Amino acid sequence: MSDIHDWKSAIVTAVFREALLAYGLAEGQIEEGEGLPDDERDLRFMAAEAIEAGGTEFSLEDTEGERGATDVRVFAGLYWWCDYGGINGPYDSLEDAADSILSMAVDQDTPGFYCSACGNVSDEFIATRSAKLVDLNDAFIVNGTVYIRTRNGLIPSAAN
Question: How far is 135 from 151, CA to CA, in rounded Å?
């Protein structure tokens, strides 16, 4: 089970609780007329499943695929980023969640570890936040377009 890092603020959100109830009913985890599980462990497990089943709105991919993608998922109208270390959120907007992922990746200071990012945000949004993820003259793919790192940041490759 993935750990939801900000569980306390997430579980008190009415819209999140309502969506969990709907998810539990739809998935057969809750019987009609029952509420959410009383056991916090069961509730956390169901919440993690629900979030991870949500649609992917943004993804940051590592070069080797060793850790898998860090994705932003949407559940209950809230945005969550999921990676090998758990679930972070909720965020009010896709941009806030994607910015958080990209900032975290840049702060790791490991140019070349990540190779691409894609999602329902503009190329400019991604490119302006991803330049430090690659070394000078190296490529980074933004929403399927090859960008090259220059002194001024990421720019679309002339070959596109």
Answer: 10
Are 14 and 41 within 8 A, CB to CB? no
CA atoms within 13 A on the CB side of 135: 4
Backbone angles phi, psi at 112, to 5 degrees: 95, -15
Give per-residue pLDDT as tens, 69-101: 899 999 999 999 988 878 888 899 999 999 999
Stated pTM of the model: 0.86
The H-or-E segment that residue 48 falls in is helix 40-53
Q: Do residues 160 and 145 make contact, with C-beta atoms less than 8 angstroms apart?
A: yes
Backbone angles phi, psi at 149, to 5 degrees: -80, 120
Q: What's the token pair of residue 114? A: 């990540």
User: How crowded is residue 71: how many other Cβ atoms within 10 Å of its Cβ?
Assistant: 21
